[in-house]
Amino acid sequence: MTIGIGALCEGRGSIVLAADKRVQLRGGRFKIDDCQKIFDLPHGFFGVTAASPDAQRLVLEICMRLSRLPRQRLGLPSVERIIRQAQRQIARPRPLGLDMQVMVAGFVGSYAFLCLVQDGLPPDFDLSPGHFVIGAAAGLEVAAREIMWIKRQQTEKMSCQRTLFHVHESVRIARSMMTEEIGPSANYLVVEPSATFEISPTCSLLASWSERFADDSSLLDGQEFKADLMAVAKPSAH
Predict the structure, then answer these.
(1) What structural domains and CATH numbers belong to the chain?
(2) CA 52, CA 49: separation in Å to the nearest integer?
(3) Which residues, other chains included, contact 235 with Cβ-Cβ below 8 Å and sequence gap of 6+?
(4) Cα–chain-centroid distance for residue 13?
């Protein structure tokens, strides 16, 4: 099982990505807690996948096709076309029973995009209110509806630091309710047009925010908290 979250923020000036690291084998009898589910893609894009073989194959197919796309032809229509072509390629041997949950994110110029690819459905770029969540059904209900939307009312207009806190809280609470299905979180990614940063989910800053902003996180939009976040961020190895 998986939990993965992608959220636009800063008025589409930044993207926050998160995923756990657990893969279960043989019906859950074996667990591996150090698996990569956030992948580098060409042109500075990223893919976030569920742990299913179909999802892994899809992100590899998207990667291969993006690598052939010249930068001068890069645009949202060409990205969407490539994702659709990759879906058809993976589905071709067996059009029924697909198990794909993948997010693709990045910047086309200065424009941030976040796309959800789910099973055989068309790629969804029309996200509202600014985030997607993939993974285990019960964990999704907690993270996407109860935390990101009802409690925090997350939108793409919120600051990077506030958004990252909401993502952190969603992953943490979903995992506490589904300890067998959802593994430890990988480092969170903050993607900007010219740089990508990693933040550890176990850093003391996020722990202190969880205590201080348990009820109301609106103060986190202040620029002093962005400085605090950048102080614990590291340039991404992705």
Answers:
(1) 3-235 (3.60.20.10)
(2) 8
(3) 195, 196, 197, 198
(4) 16
